[in-house]
Amino acid sequence: MNRFLVGLCVLVAALQGCSLLFVAKGKTGFVAVKGQEAPKAKSLTKQMDRAYVIHHKVEEGETLAFLGNAFFGSEKKGAAKIAGANHLNIHSELKPGRVLKIISPDNFPTASELRDRLKKLTQATPAVQKKSAETDGPVFSTLDESQVKIEKIERPKINKAFAPGEKLVYEVRALSLIAGEATLEVAPPVTVEKRPCYPLVAKAKAAFPFSTIYPVKDVQTSYFDAVDFLTWKFENNVSEGNYKAQNAERYDQVKHTLWRQHNHEDPEVVDIPPFAQDLISCFYYFRLLPLEVGKKYSIPTTSTGKNYNLVIAVVRQEKKTVSMGTFDCYLIKPYVKHDTVFRNSEDIDMWVTTDSRHVPIFIKSGIVIGSIEISLLQATLPEIAGDSDNLLVP
């Protein structure tokens, strides 16, 4: 049971993969360091901002209406979009094996998810479907899709949120016990795919005595474009209990494709949407957005070769107290748009500062037997040119 609980604490803290956040010994406090000028480079936004295409191989039983609903959330309108892109009549029957072009879909179901969905539709009777809806509902927070209005904003052009030299140290408490330690750090710029990138480095390890039961030692690095604010490369080395994994991903943001390799398996190439983020870069990208109470923002994200939309809902503004002090914060709830449902699968709440840096101060995630609490213990923040905010001063 202890092994299970520690493992659960480690995994739930990932915030949809935004790295593990644990804690280091030492004094609480804030340290300011001299800033570094951002690298200069020409933006590639115009080359990247174009319609993107994914390719779907038709399986037995799939129809244009079925695929329209799966990829666009509407049988009629979605079917019309797919038919038009593939020079088909909207009533055309689809032959298994045919490859369809799906242009700029709203949803990103995988082939296995489509098979499961089709199986349920063909096997379930209306009575069974009604019973399932009543008894098998999700146990996590959801958003009513009819009420979800995503803010249409321009991609940020200036970064006043973070810079090389930033280092955040957190503590995680599970069942009132400290479970481990970790850091999130922005390293000096390097060149990746001829682009100036900030390595965003997340390191985590379990703390004694949990490390003797469920050892954790993870390093995850995202290479984040310092000008266009998206990812070009992602690497991680995960060791959690008996689970070991190494992953490498290379993003072609102009062609909208991703090359990825898991351990020593054969590499694969998958389609990705424009301006796709990886699981760590999305955590930093949302800090660049002009957050306002009551608004929701969507971030295209790719994980393990799957695409989805990460939706950030700004719930309210309130003060939050941690060991470093009391801060003005926004309460944030992240949701993942899976199929046509927006859901918060770990029921995560996050408090970030209301200043331009949007530093995550506190994260709370519910589990069956209680909750996991992640709080900022130490912060090293570089000066940022043109920023006059009195940052992280309680």
Q: How would you describe the overall organization of this protein?
A:
This protein is of the alpha+beta class and 394 residues long. It has 2 domains: 2-43 and 150-382; 47-124, Membrane-bound Lytic Murein Transglycosylase D, Chain A. It has 8 helices and 20 strands. It has helices spanning 2-12, 45-48, 64-72, 75-85, 111-123, 126-135, 210-213, 281-285; strands at residues 29-33, 53-57, 99-103, 141-143, 167-174, 177-186, 190-192, 195-206, 217-225, 231-240, 243-252, 257-262, 268-271, 296-303, 306-322, 325-338, 341-344, 348-353, 360-367, 370-382. It has an 18-stranded mixed β-sheet that branches. Strands 2-3 form a two-stranded antiparallel sheet. Strand 14 and strand 15 form a beta hairpin. Helix 3 crosses helix 4. The longest helix is centred in the N-terminal third of the chain and has 13 residues, at 111-123.
In brief:
The protein has 394 residues and is an alpha+beta fold. It has helices at residues 2-12, 45-48, 64-72, 75-85, 111-123, 126-135, 210-213, 281-285; strands spanning 29-33, 53-57, 99-103, 141-143, 167-174, 177-186, 190-192, 195-206, 217-225, 231-240, 243-252, 257-262, 268-271, 296-303, 306-322, 325-338, 341-344, 348-353, 360-367, 370-382. The strands form two sheets. It has an 18-stranded mixed beta sheet that branches. A two-stranded antiparallel sheet has the order 2-3.
